[in-house]
Amino acid sequence: RDVVRDGWAAWGASLLWASNPFILFECICGRFTQAFLWFLPLAVRHFIRAGRSRLDAVLAGVFTALVGWTYWFDGFFLALLFAWLALLGLSRDRKLLRPYLVACGVCLTLVMPAVVSMAMHHDVPGLAPSGGSQDGHLILNNVAPSLHGLELMEESLNPMFTTRVWGLGLLVYALLGRD
Length: 179
Fold this sequence. Notes:
67% of the residues lie in helices and 3% in strands. It has 179 residues and is mainly alpha-helical. The chain has a two-stranded antiparallel ribbon. A hairpin with a 7-residue loop joins β1 (127-129) and β2.
């Protein structure tokens, strides 16, 4: 609602978010943690608003940590994105330093148990010793061998309705959207 300012548009955007082909593909592959993205838009929302209030800064950290606890790859890359955006924001307004530090501190505090556990056990989900080099790791492919990505799945196995789902949403927006 913060972005579109209209209840029906927010509902339509939520429907598209929940039914986007990436989500459906991950569910079909049995990787529900990668499809559980509810905290991502909330993290982005509160990061954008972090300079407005202390609560928004705290919530930016909480939701970023929840993204990380849900699926650590997402949390890791979201934190990298936020770090880059924070540097850009700080180049324009130094007053953002405190809210960004609050968000970072809250996030680090909440994810630290997982980070410490992975470090102590030398076990990072999704990575396995490569066996070929001394300290190298390989990213494990945990997708079934018969599934080769969304594009191939769309063409030959299970139609994900990528073009139809997003095309219909764009058509409705073009016809009914307001400036």
